Amino acid sequence: MIEIFKNTNYDFLGKKGLAFGLSTILLLAGVASMFYRAFDGNESTSPFNLGVDFVGGTLATVKFNATPDVDKLRAALGSQGIETAKVTIQPVGDQIGQAPRNEVLVRLPNLVNVVRQEGQSETAAKATDDADVGKQKILAALATLNDPSTAGRVDLNALGKDQIASALSARAGLDGQRSDEIAARIVEYREKSRDGLIGNISEVRNLSGVDPQIGNFLDQGFFTGVAAVKSVEAVSPQVGADLRNRAIFVSLLSCLGMLIYVAFRFKSWGFGIGSVVAVFHDVLVTLGFFSIMQWEINLTVIAALLTLIGYSMNDTIVIFDRIRELLRFRRRDTLERLANDAVNETLSRTVITNGLTFLTVFALVLFGGEVLKSFSWALFIGIIVGSYSTVYIASPFMLMWENWRGSKSSYTKAITGNAGSPGNTSGTAGLNAATTVTSRMLAEAGVSAKKRKKGRQ
Strand ranges (DSSP E) for 226-353? Predict the structure, then answer.
């Protein structure tokens, strides 16, 4: 492997006190944000900006034929009986070197009425409305933005293939097969050539297969609206609650599984606890940033967090595995010295792999767009925090566990007696890092305590 850093001897674990202080500040900032937003008395705020995947509601992407007027759209939604304070409208950023997209993301609160009986769970409650009610409200609001002179005519930007075919059959007197063919041609042109929005009815008249006579009927009975719904997600409160519960369960289960795996792999609960504490640290710090910035948490963020759990765990195992290798040859050194040397020896690998991954995620942050915003930021923050926690959280907690185990066993005197050994290092205050490698540690790490014969590696 390419070595960027050779023969490094940085005292990483000597700075563990500063690292613990930084982690405490980050965690407390996230917790303070959560508590403030939970108890500020404003019903419109919450500890996390949960997406429609978890709380129910409607999320739609709306495309306009010109620069959208957000205030006018919000007023149109308010005219449909929706509380405008709970409506989120966010313009979609334009791509560099491309034409303006003229799109906005519209997020509506849950509009589904739910009847919940006494003692009934949140997921078992009965909904009295269709979860698609939000989409219908958005379509009705967009219809009010059209020119009043188009009243009574059919909007080709607002209907699907079957609806357009039925309108052609009723207004132009076409048979079923012919109306289906023309409707399919219109929808194909709209979605593939015009990105979901036809600018003018004359564009439809010039399509191949559209006869001049049919074009006259299109002029009389049809028009193209100023906006169209490109995509929409509608989730009921019951489904959202179920997804939220499953996301929490999956995240906790993955951490438990990794704790058991690492403890079994290294035959020591110290290694397992150190790695899982680091994983929890990464997740909590990332969630703290999401609470402070109020970035939306949806299913893609959960996927990013699960990815970070595996990514951070892999980084930690590489260092822990190197520690176990060093146990075979340097049994007189302190465990902190071995951990510090393991970090130094794997530093090139860490910088190369984490650096390349960081560049990829950084590109997602810059060019991923609004849809991938939460996902890319979760990975961006998680990779930075995960690389840091592998060195400054996982290894120190492993040393703390081994120190606690040592203080409760009969070899405490041996530990104290070796504090001044040549292998000892500075910066051990607080964790009693002078803990030397003992036969118990070797056995737990799967290393034979027998002396090797000369000439054998």
Answer: 227-235, 296-297
Question: Is residue 306 classed exposed, middle or buried when 0-12, 13-18 and 19+ CB atoms within 10 A define those classes?
Answer: middle
* Banded pLDDT at 423 (limits 50, 70, 90): very low
Catalogue the long-range contacts made by 3-8 (C-beta closer than 8 Å, 24 or more residues apart): 3/348, 4/347, 4/348, 4/351, 4/352, 5/344, 5/347, 5/348, 5/351, 6/348, 8/344, 8/347
Give burial (CB, 10 Å; 0-12/13-18/19+) of 136: middle
N residues, the chain:
457
In terms of domains, do 27 and 76 share one?
A: no
* One domain for residues 313 and 403: yes
**Phi, psi for residue 67 in degrees, rounded to 5:** -60, 120
**All residues at 6 or more sequence positions from 173 whose CB lies less than 8 Å from its CB, including other chains:** none
Strand runs labelled E in 186-265 = 222-223, 227-235
Q: Verify that 199 and 292 share a domain, yes or no.
A: no
> How many separate domains does the chain show?
3
Q: What is the mean pLDDT of residues 398-419?
A: 59
Higher pLDDT, 325 or 286: 286
The encoded tokens of residue 4 equal 């960027």
Q: Where are the alpha helices (DSSP H) in 39-116?
A: 52-55, 70-78
Can you give the pLDDT at residue 108? 85
E-strand spans in 40-168? 49-50, 57-64, 88-91, 103-108, 114-115, 126-127, 154-155
Rounded to two decimals, the pTM is 0.69
| Closest of 412, 401, 408 to residue 438, by C-alpha | 412
| CATH code for the domain of 99 | 3.30.70
Same domain, 287 and 413: yes
Write out pLDDT tens, residues 289-335.
999 998 888 888 988 988 888 888 888 888 888 888 888 877 777 88
> Which range of residues forms the domain containing residue 338?
13-32+236-444
* Pair (88, 201) in one structural domain: no
Q: What residues form DSSP beta bridges with 126?
A: 115
> Contact, 141 vs 74, CB < 8 A?
no
- Residue ending a domain, choose from 195, 225, 255: 225
Look up residue 425 and give its two tokens.
């290092």
Q: What would the pLDDT profile of 122-134 be if each residue is shown by its tens digit?
A: 554 454 455 578 8
Q: How far apart are CA 44 and CA 450, in angstroms?
A: 66
Could you give the 3-state DSSP secondary structure of residue 356? helix
435 contacts 334 by C-beta, under 8 angstroms: yes
pLDDT in tens, 334-390: 888 888 888 888 888 888 888 888 999 999 888 877 778 889 999 999 999 988 998
Q: What is the mean pLDDT of the chain?
A: 79
